[in-house]
Write a structure and sequence with these properties.
Blueprint: H1 2-23, H2 33-41, H3 44-66, H4 69-76, H5 79-91, H6 97-115, H7 130-155, H8 166-187, H9 195-204, H10 207-228, H11 231-253, H12 262-281
Helix pairs in contact: 1-3, 1-5, 3-8, 4-6, 4-11, 5-11, 6-12, 7-8, 8-10, 8-11, 11-12
């Protein structure tokens, strides 16, 4: 529990620091990854944010060694509250009433998932069949990249409404969901005995290569999305997709049994369905900025 709360704090702080650094940088694009990396690596604030995210990754490894996947996701999502508070305080971002209700519903949905757990009855799996992991992860990576490119194409339209970042958040969330499954897989190889053999077995598994892919693409995609959209919206959407993806597909892939008690099973299924419904109902565009009205009695200037 302590490691999960620490991971929440580190991740929230890391995202906010990166967003603040990106607002001071020229516009970045996934079509120019080398330029993007050069810009962000030249920002001490961004480096501080990335180090905070890396530390959160280390805490997440500890969590997956001790908690079932679904339980871990329920705790991780509580970090959304801290993220919204930090975004308002450090970035000056304000969420609309509809978005605040949506975030509250997401928290309620994932609380239902946590309540569906029963201490001592949940198994923590250590392994999953490699073909099954690839069957789950490869299409998800393709869907995430395709959705992100679709959102990018729409942003290039001249008369588009400003996007809230929901599509970006879903796309990056799919990549981070795969990354989360890979972290779960890597955690199963962490041992204090036979380190050489464990490392060799790890390199023979798909997990380090999935982490490399999601790390590289997730870095470029998330930074471009963070620069375009509000962190207080895109990160909660990304986090929710990641948590749902990991809780549902991770539980099935790693063979962690669903609750046998009908009430607990209903809580878990209903919580998952509610979170998905909230995501689908969130606004996809920010309202267009209204131009200031001229003072009463002022004459409208017309070109000669």
């Amino acid at each position: 529990m302590a490691a999960a709360l620490l991971a929440n704090t580190l991740y929230s702080l890391g995202f906010v620091l990166e967003k603040r650094a990106l607002t001071a940088l020229p516009q970045v694009s996934i079509r120019q990854p080398a330029r993007l990396l050069r810009l962000v690596l030249g920002s001490p604030l961004w480096i501080g944010g990335s180090l905070s995210l890396a530390a959160g990754f280390g805490a997440q490894l500890v969590v997956y060694r001790t908690l079932p996947i679904a339980a871990a996701q329920g705790i991780f999502v509580s970090g959304l509250v801290l993220l919204v508070l930090l975004s308002a305080r450090l970035l000056g971002e304000e969420t609309s009433g509809r978005e605040r209700y949506a975030l509250g519903a997401i928290l309620a949905a994932l609380l239902m998932v946590v309540l569906s757990l029963r201490e001592g009855s949940e198994t923590v799996s250590r392994a999953a069949p490699y073909p099954l992991i690839l069957l789950v992860c490869v299409p998800s990576l393709g869907a995430g990249v395709w959705l992100y490119n679709s959102a990018e194409r729409r942003t290039r339209h001249r008369h588009r409404l400003p996007t809230t970042g929901v599509e970006y958040g879903v796309a990056v969330g799919l990549l981070y969901g795969v990354s989360s499954l890979a972290i779960k897989g890597v955690s199963s190889y962490l041992t204090t005995s036979a380190i050489g053999g464990s490392l060799l077995n790890l390199l023979r598994s798909p997990y380090p290569y999935l982490l490399l892919f999601t790390g590289a693409f997730g870095l470029v995609m998330s930074q471009a999305a963070l620069q375009r959209c509000r962190a207080s919206l895109i990160v909660p959407v990304c986090t929710t997709v990641t948590c749902l993806y990991t809780a549902v597909l991770g539980t099935l892939s790693f063979g962690e049994a669903l609750p046998e008690d009908p009430l607990r099973l209903a809580l878990r299924v209903a919580g998952t369905a509610l979170a998905i419904a909230v995501l689908l109902s969130m606004p996809r565009h920010d309202p267009p900025a209204q131009s200031p009205q001229p003072p009463i009695g002022a004459k409208e200037l017309t070109p000669p």
